[in-house]
Amino acid sequence: MKDTFRKPIKLGVTGGIGSGKTTICRIFTVMGIPVFSADIVASLVMESDQELRENLNQLAGKDLYQGGALDRQELAKIIFSDREMLLRVNSLVHPVVFSHYLEWAGRQETPYSVMEAAILFESGASELVDMILTVVTPVQERIGRIVKGKKLTEEQVMERIKNQIDDESRIKRSDFVVYNSENDMVIPVILEIHEKLVKLYNSTF
Fold first, then answer.
1. For the whole model, what pTM was predicted?
2. Which of 199, 183, 178, 196 is nearest to 116 (CA)?
């Protein structure tokens, strides 16, 4: 009974804003690997978790939900201009997201599953996974992608980059690195990582 109690490997996928984490994770999804997006779940729980909503309002000193939904622009103004406030907001949101992740991960039956998180290391989520993949893209290319998509201005992108650790620090703490510049071929690299993880799972007793 080699694998009766064997658990799927938990892979964390991270990278700086605009690095293409979500694109990389779509490749895993196409291969049948379940992906948990910490950023999406964080957005959902900030809307649906009543206790969290109340705590965020108390921290901000104002009602961030006047229109019924979270005023994300107002929250962004608060947290990206004040690092201490960012840390305090994260300390409220992250435990709720982590709880959802662990419950989700416990239900997966594939050889491995993926947790996609922009601030995997900064949030402490790196402690919840078994292995880590970092997506690396040159900073100017990352800025260009976000600005071109008209999601943020260059100044806003730079604010977020300042609040994330640098690629060198991520790489040192990762098991896999995927370079995702315009000229990089990422699918063969992802397939190789996939094969390694499946092989590792199958060799576990």
1. 0.90
2. 178
Q: How confident is the model at residue 1 (pLDDT cuts 50, 70, 90)?
A: very low
Residue 54 inside a domain? The answer is no
**Based on the structure, what is the number of domains in the chain?**
1
The total number of residues shown for the chain amounts to 205
Q: Tokens 């900064």 correspond to what residue? A: 122
Paired tokens of 127: 């402690």
**Would you say the C-alpha torsion 62, 64, 66, 72 has a positive or negative sign?**
positive
Q: Is residue 107 part of a domain?
A: yes
Residues 37-93 pLDDT 10s:
999 999 999 999 999 999 999 999 999 999 899 999 899 888 877 889 989 999 999
Q: Is residue 37 classed as helix, strand or coil in its secondary structure?
A: strand
Confirm whether 78 is domain-assigned: no
Looking up residue 198, the CATH number of its domain turns out to be: 3.40.50.300
In a domain, 154, yes or no: yes
**Positive/negative CA dihedral, 146, 150, 154, 158:** negative
- Cα Rg for the chain, rounded, in angstroms? 18
Domain of residue 149 covers: 9-39+96-202
The half-sphere exposure of 113 on its side-chain side, counting CA atoms within 13 A, is 19
